[in-house]
Structure formats: C-alpha cells, structure tokens
Design a protein that fits this description.
330 residues, alpha/beta, Peroxisomal Thiolase, Chain A, domain 1, five-stranded mixed sheet, four-stranded mixed sheet, 9 helices, 13 strands, globular
C-alpha cells in the first residue's frame, strides 16, 4: 500500500534565543563573513542559549497544537524524529511528553532516528499505522542541538543551526484533501563513513571518554556526500515516481533537506526543478539536521507557498548514506 489517506493537520516551529549572523560567526572563527556566505550561504542561524532539545521540541509542539485547536491530550502518539537524543536514556520523546504536561497521560512516546531523514522516515512509517486505524492523531517532533560541531572544520561548522519543528498528522476525512501518494527510502552503506560522530553510543565506555574526545565531534566529507547524492538521486526519483505515474513537472513544490545552499542549488538544476518550485530556508536557518524539512514545510504553509490540494515532495539525504522522499497532497 503506497497511497495513504493521511493529512497534515498543523505545523509549528521554534528557533532558539541566540541569533547568530555570518558576521558574528566569522569574528568567532577568525575568518571573513563573505567566505561564510559564499561557502555555506547561511547569513543567519540560531543556537541554543539555555534551551534543551526537549524544551525546544515542546515549544514547537505547543505551536502546532495551538494552530490545530487541540490539546496534547487529543494526541494518540508522540514521536521524536531527531538525529541526536538529548540524553542516552530515556528517549527524547518521553522528555518532550513531560514538558507538555503529559507525564501521567500514558500517551505512547518514542524516538525514531534515521539522522537527517528522521522526520521523513517517521512520517512515512507512522502514516501506515494511521491509515490502518491504529492512531487518530500523531505528533511528530524534530528537535536538534548541534553539540558535536567541530569549530576547526570551517566548511562544516558554518552550515549548522539549532531549532525544532512539529507536525500533527491524522487520517483524512472523506470531504478533505490530503494523502501520501508514494514514498521511498534507500540506504547505501558504502557511504556510511562520509558523515559520522563515532562516540555517544556504546562503542566507547564512559570511562574512556577523556581519551576519545575527538570522536564526539561530527565529521563530514561534504564533497563526497554531494557526489554521492548526484549519483543516486536521478534514478532514485525515477523509482519513486514510476509506480504513481508521476513526473517532477507534476509537483507544485519540492521541500528539500536544507543541507547546503550551494549543493541544493546544483542538485535542483541537475534534477530539472524550477527555482520557484524549490523552497530554500537555509540562508536564515542554517542546516537544522532532521528539523530542516519540517521547518521548511512549516514555512511553505505560513508563507502560503502551498495551499490545500498542492502536490508536494519532501526530499532529502542523510548519513548512512541514505536518500528518501515522500510525495503527498497537502
């Protein structure tokens, strides 16, 4: 079953208090602001000041619930779709639930992680459960704090920002628009070492952390990731569209992972997607990892770049190396 009668009810977003311009970041790194804007294209991004990931996720969730006219107790399931948990145990979703006042609710809460594609994977996966009647309304939260940035890796560190987004999804009623038409996720683990943060799991014992501090820092071979994406994406999209009889020209809007503005521009041209059908927000958000796609989706809605009935595609890549997409009617 590819097509599922699932709709986006509402979205929400939260940006941290600490707004950082390219000029401010350049001063911190001892480089020229023009170099940052040329390399990453990010003019403004936000970093946490005193917020935690679960706190940001709760703020974004409250915004989505308010937009939908719902309370947290109208939700049947809470899923945190982030790349990095706030702490090893418990899952971040449980911490978000507590911040939403649901500590005695019994509403199921769990995490789902496929790094930058976590939101797309979460939406695709839980949509089957909603379509089958297992849940009525599900709250998907993506909240990211970039604690593992290596500030000596200038080409990588200038890409990122913190933030959170939340989306409420539900089964579509007969008189409403909204459905997932097709989706696809592919992983090519020969690229698993292109994006890594080796520590933080069970590979290293906590007693050994002082000996392996560098392993906690995120590393990325950006050029290799870009080449991999360019190699995989064209045929991937053919495999995505073919069962539904669709073409890129049928889409009203493409909402991509906000990885790098330079890479996004080149990939957009390679795929033949017109600029007006490609939503980029990285210039004033940065790469917010798994939160980037739902943040961009939120912006597409509030800026009225898409309307009910619009045909949209959520598209991204992630560490793994994975590529994923969902085509849906908003």
């Amino acid at each position: 079953m590819q097509t599922r009668s699932v709709k986006i009810v509402a979205t929400g977003k939260y940006l941290p208090k600490n707004k950082v311009t390219a000029t401010q970041l350049a001063a911190k790194l001892g480089i020229d602001a023009a170099w940052i804007e040329k390399k990453s294209g990010v003019q403004v991004r936000y970093f946490v000041e005193d917020e935690s990931a679960s706190e940001m996720g709760a703020y974004a969730a409250k915004s989505a619930l308010e937009a939908a006219g719902l309370s947290f107790f109208d939700i049947d399931c809470l899923i945190c779709t982030s790349s990095t948990p706030e702490q090893a145990i418990p899952c971040t979703a449980a911490l978000v639930q507590k911040r939403l006042g649901g500590e005695n609710s019994g509403i199921p809460a769990f995490d789902l992680n496929s790094t930058c594609l976590s939101f797309v994977t979460g939406l695709d996966t839980i949509a089957y459960a909603i379509a089958a009647g297992r849940y009525r309304r599900v709250l998907l939260v993506a909240t990211e704090v970039c604690t593992g940035i290596n500030w000596e890796d200038r080409e990588t560190c200038t890409l990122f920002g913190d933030g959170a987004a939340a989306v409420i999804i539900a089964q579509t009623e007969e008189d409403e628009t909204g459905k997932i038409i097709c989706s696809r996720l592919e992983t090519y683990s020969r690229g698993a070492n292109l994006c890594e943060c080796k520590a933080g799991g069970n590979k290293y014992h906590p007693q050994d952390y002082s000996k392996n501090l560098s392993q906690f820092l995120f590393t990325m071979n950006g050029k290799a990731v870009f080449r991999f994406a360019c190699e995989i994406l064209p045929d991937f999209l053919d495999r995505l569209f073919q069962p539904a009889g669709l073409e890129i020209s049928d889409l009203d809007m493409v909402i991509p992972h906000q990885a790098s503005l330079m890479a996004m521009k080149l990939i957009r041209k390679q795929l033949g997607i017109p600029k007006e059908k490609w939503l980029a927000i990285a210039h004033n958000h940065g790469n917010t990892i798994a939160a980037s796609i739902p943040m961009a989706l939120h912006e597409a809605i509030v800026q009225e770049k898409i309307q009910r009935g619009s045909l949209i595609m959520l598209l991204g890549t992630s560490a793994g190396f994975s590529v994923g997409a969902i085509v849906m009617q908003y």
